[in-house]
Amino acid sequence: MVQRLLASLALSLCAAAAQAAGPLVELKTSLGNIVLELNPEQAPKTVDNFLQYVQSGYYNGTIFHRVIDSFMIQGGGIDASFKEKRTRAPIENEASNGLSNDTGTIAMARTSDPDSATAQFFINVKNNAFLNYQGADNRGYAVFGKVISGMDVVRKIEKLPTQTKGMYANVPVEPPIIESARVIEAPPEKAQASAPAPLRTPKKPTPTPPKSRKANNP
Fold first, then answer.
1. CATH number of this structure's domain 22-200
2. Is-above-0.85 flag for pTM?
């Protein structure tokens, strides 16, 4: 009897955990796959925006164009020919949602305008507390998910040799390509995004190392 109760409880806990999990997005890159678990409960607008880009195929063929060892890897807005892609309108900054820029989390890149994030994102490779929401004068960078598989791929990208390419610094000599991005498992009510908005010409959101803290970078 006790064993049956324990088994029933275990099944209930598993079901609850599965229901609580957010949408899963797989980034198939030229160096391996990265799986992200998104958090629509704490970052609903950011997750909705990201899923729109994923489901439209926007990220397919883009690269990780900015890599800084012991800081972050950034991608999602520049294609393999190093041309910036047009984006939809920027979204509201949700960095005050309580999620921290910890190792393995994914957050939105932006310019000096706190509400300027569009398509580009970055994955933290260390705890970057200075990127978190600090208040009205320092609104931080919005975390909206985390890596649950493929952190070894993130580390490979982090350690790639880099160069300066035109106006861009910290560009991998051989930029990893996001070959595809797709939702692989998500409850419909959480994964479904609203209808895509029109694309626009992008500005350049670029994260920067903690020491420099330029106004237009995380």
1. 2.40.100.10
2. no
